[in-house]
Fold this protein.
Amino acid sequence: MCRCKSCYLAISGVIFLIVTVLHALRLVYKVPVQIGDRPLPDWSSWAGAVGAGILCIWAFWLLCGVCCCHSCKTETPPEK
């Protein structure tokens, strides 16, 4: 894997990890959030935590080279 792709996956994974933790903290501490005059329901943080958590796991999964699709596998050149 090229270095720039590894950096991208690592940074993406960390950002999604931070977002997941922030959503979880909002749920634990019951922090009210509102947009304008409308309160944001708790289920939106559940959805945000699950979605960001999945993307975090996916980024680190790809970073470690664990991929189930055949297009990610690099072919080794035939021996001469």
The longest strand covers residues 34-35.
